[in-house]
UniProtKB/TrEMBL annotation:
InterPro entries to which the protein is assigned, alphabetical: Fibulin_C (IPR055088)
Superkingdom: Eukaryota
UniProt entry keywords in alphabetical sequence: Repeat
Organism: Pleuronectes platessa (European plaice)
One Pfam family here: Fibulin_C
All residue ranges annotated as the Fibulin C-terminal Ig-like domain in the record: 24-131
Name listed for the protein in its UniProt record: Fibulin C-terminal Ig-like domain-containing protein
Length: 132
């Protein structure tokens, strides 16, 4: 399940226009309690349409992924990868979490052009870890 909120600034609202957040996406995820946790588990794939190998890298848009909030044990990370010639982010569970537990992980997708953030998309992931 997911929900997307797209920014639509009222005419003349400079605070809104200057805020780099363009889209906020909310998603829900239910995971089992991994008893035998030996390696990171890839749980969310953040696909983009940005070229991994642009023709002119000096003028290209780049994307950097950053976890801006998570649990206090830092049980998640995000990796930047290339898939089908596009940049993508992979959110991973890197530590075992004893369930049942509800968590929220927020990931910022920073779009960078000419060395500055042109805009940002935010992904809020609500995660339920089951008892079994």
């Amino acid at each position: 399940m997911g929900l997307h909120c797209i920014k639509a600034c009222p005419f003349g609202d400079t605070n809104c226009a200057l805020n780099p957040v363009h889209i906020i996406t909310y998603t829900l995820l239910s995971l089992p309690y991994f008893i035998d946790f030996r390696a990171p588990v890839e749980i969310v794939f953040l696909r983009t349409v940005v070229a991994a190998y642009p023709a002119d890298p000096r003028r290209a848009t780049n994307i950097f992924f950053e976890i801006t909030s998570a649990d206090e044990q830092f049980s998640f990370d995000v990796q930047r990868r290339f898939h089908q010639n596009k940049i993508m982010g992979v959110v991973r569970q890197v530590k075992p979490i004893i369930g049942p537990r509800d968590l929220e992980v927020t990931v910022a997708m920073n779009y960078v052009k000419s060395g500055a953030i042109s805009h940002q998309n935010v992904v809020v992931i609500r995660i339920f870890i089951s008892e079994f």
